[in-house]
């Protein structure tokens, strides 16, 4: 049974952590100011601005901050300052006992995908959304979308594409960054994809890597039991169709051709100027017909 933590109200506390890559303190501070202007309290963890080479801090320091945030009795949300790389160094050492007594929203994407999966395994929704360092770079529209979602105003999504594969399905929405999905296979944070609606996004990969990762999902049996596939943004790719012979859409459709689940492309989430929040683990309805696709939440927004 997957549950949603309480939605946030004015003056609720958000803790900021840097569990993965090194952050830009000035930009994170600007992101925190956006949350404060929305009426929330914000506290920065002790090691959030304590960089250690490529990482936000030393492994033990990042683990300490994340464990403190999970255990905190007052906070209503944990906002990851950045993705990058590093969460999987510490994720298997987490203790979720106190979190279950005081559940809170975990917010982030990209490398934070693994942490969202861990929250799901422990029975809770989380928020696949811009990391705090990315929040100031989003338009005010997308910033508001995040604030609204945290406050319980969860909106349906629509996407248009000529590559859609028609169909309809209901199921739990899981997924995240495609590379991180691959890296969870065979680990403690690997999820069961059966009857799930999977969402994926990626950044800065050559097309042959996309091909390889989709093939890995297929060979690992992750595609055959899906209820649906929601495809977000694939940005800053280092190859195009003229080099590889297939586009991202064609690669995905090719690997999914043996299955009858609906596929929707071009949803506005991922590493780009558009990054709408997705409630990871929530029950959704997925409808794809012609060039239009809709993702509607089936959870209580109150």
Automatic annotation (TrEMBL):
Keywords for this protein: Carboxypeptidase, Hydrolase, Protease, Serine protease
The protein, known as: LD-carboxypeptidase
Superkingdom field: Bacteria
Sections of the chain in a coiled coil: none
Keyword Glycoprotein: no
Ranges of residues in domain LD-carboxypeptidase C-terminal: 170-284
Keyword RNA-binding part of the UniProt annotation: no
Similarity comment: family membership: Belongs to the peptidase S66 family.
Organism whose genome encodes this protein: Marivirga salinarum
PANTHER family from the UniProt entry: MURAMOYLTETRAPEPTIDE CARBOXYPEPTIDASE, MUREIN TETRAPEPTIDE CARBOXYPEPTIDASE
Molecular functions (GO terms): carboxypeptidase activity; serine-type peptidase activity
Sequence ranges assigned to domain LD-carboxypeptidase N-terminal in this UniProt record: 14-128
Active site: 110 (nucleophile), 201 (charge relay system), 271 (charge relay system)
GO terms classed as biological process: proteolysis
